[in-house]
Amino acid sequence: MPSAIKGVLIECDPSIRALVLNIDAKTHDIIIEELDETHLMVDENKVEYIKSELNKLLAKNTFVPEGEE
């Protein structure tokens, strides 16, 4: 018997897609299907986790000139 998983369609640019794939590589329970270069189907219960992890990664990779911290 087939089973269904509720998912959310995410549209993003390829660089953000790569970050989401990296986040999923740790647990393998976030991405349901990779649709194309800009679309991913993800578990609806993991959307807030993805947002949180992306914010952490993007904050870590943001350049802040010296003296403006």
TrEMBL record:
Pfam families the record matches: Tfb5
Cellular component terms (Gene Ontology): transcription factor TFIIH core complex; transcription factor TFIIH holo complex
Annotated SUPFAM superfamilies: TFB5-like
Coiled-coil regions, chain positions: none
Origin: domain of life: Eukaryota
Gene Ontology terms: biological process: nucleotide-excision repair, preincision complex assembly; transcription initiation at RNA polymerase II promoter
Cross-referenced InterPro entries: TFB5-like_sf, TFIIH_TTDA/Tfb5
UniProt entry tagged with the keyword Nucleus: yes
Localization per record: Nucleus
Entry keywords, A to Z: DNA damage, DNA repair, Nucleus, Transcription, Transcription regulation
Family: Belongs to the TFB5 family.
Role played: In NER, TFIIH acts by opening DNA around the lesion to allow the excision of the damaged oligonucleotide and its replacement by a new DNA fragment. In transcription, TFIIH has an essential role in transcription initiation. When the pre-initiation complex (PIC) has been established, TFIIH is required for promoter opening and promoter escape.
Subunit field text: Component of the 7-subunit TFIIH core complex.
Entry protein name: General transcription and DNA repair factor IIH subunit TFB5
